[in-house]
Amino acid sequence: MRHQAGLTFVTVALLGALSLAGCTGTPPQSPDSPEGTSQQEAAPEPQKDPKAEAYALYAEKVREYVDAYGEPSYEGPASSDYETQTGTGLNLVLLRDYNKDGVEELVLGHRNADDADYMHPYVIEVWAVRDGELVLALDDPDAFSHGQDVLTGFEDATLDGEPVVLTTIYGPSELGEQSGGGAYALRDGSFVQTLSYLQDYSFDGSVNNFTVDGEKSDADGFLAAMQRPVVSDYWSLMGYGAATPGEGVTLHTVPETVAEAQRVIALLEEAVDGGATDEATGETTYAAHDVSQEVTVNAYQAGSGSWEETNTWSYPQFETSNGDVPNQLETLNESIKADFEERLATQESMTEEAAAGDSQGVPEQTLWCHDTTTSIDGAIASVRLDRYSYYGGAHGTRYVSGRFYNLDSGEEVPATEALGMSENELKLAAKEGLQAFFAVTPSDLGADIDYDRAVDDLFLENRTFIYRTDDAIVACFTEGTVGSVGFGGHEIVICSLTDRVAVGDDLVGNYPVQ
To answer: Which Gene3D superfamilies does the entry mention (predicted)?
Structure first.
């Protein structure tokens, strides 16, 4: 819900991607600056995003197949008894990057329309994009032959570290019956078979032939070939073929396979129709709104009773720039909100007895939790966490830190990944920023500053005291780290991204001791 009364929404500007590696405090040159590109130079043609292009083609193919075969579904009880479940419609839809080029291929599977063809209960295909066109990259009906539905599934696997499509063959032969399989790898735009193994035998057991990669073999060679691929996931299409998956293999039941197909279809449709995209890059763009509320909590001081503390508490929520909330952001938003509500509930339930602590120490009291989005650069969001922690003494401590999220994946990422700088590079920039700050505002400790310790304290095991704004990368020095407690905390620019700020600027100023 995006428009609730009493909630404050703050739209965050979207930034172009900036290379931050080796930042020295000098903002990147703008094309309009004297040192930048001349205005007479023709602007380069914007490059199409190959993933967005592929997703558009995949979405069109999926619509075609849904029209032809039906929506992903299954027949049978919606329970763990998946032995009687049968996938129907377009019930296998996966995105897999088989050649590791950053653009996934599309795996599709559906029930064969010809029920009389018991050797091919399901049709499985792999589609790819070549030169801007959608092509059927792997289409070998016999490679997915199955003599009985109980063996029907699709496996995520690698062979010698390379992603592969595994195939299964089982059914009648001229000799009697055959079983085996193989692996296909995507190379130079085409799938090539990189492994094959086959057992062909008579029903009376008098003849048993083995081949591996087209060459005559024996039972040991056949079994060794079967064991070469490493399977991570088995996606059940029908029956009970994966009821006892191998060690380390994740079994996905028929309903789970259908659910994954539905999720991927929604992802493709969103990328084409629902997601906001940058016209120049084709990438999804994002926005944020901060949900704020006035909160009154009780604070407890050892031996002195309690008082009411009223402050603004807030937490961020993310969406695409046109207001949609895809699955990964819905999950992220719920997690952020749940953490906020848990912190608030902990303080609201605090009692004088609990605040007094025990032999293990006193608990943290949170008097405010003001988390706000400070920038979104491409898919990377930076959040400034402003918390005031109190432990029952004369005063508490204000901690300002940073947190980064990749909005494409909905996952938290470390500052080094988000900013494109190593920990050592960030520490060096922080030291230079702190020195520039002290050149204007000397510490009340004089020259007796341990710079190395101050910048080391920016990186703790579960917290990083760095965030990003539209204009700068900022290091947060907690009170008592670069001066006395009375000198306060400071948020120092350690890398300027525009000419609006300079390295050494204090964005917030001295925190008053409370």
So the answer is: Fervidobacterium nodosum Rt17-B1 like
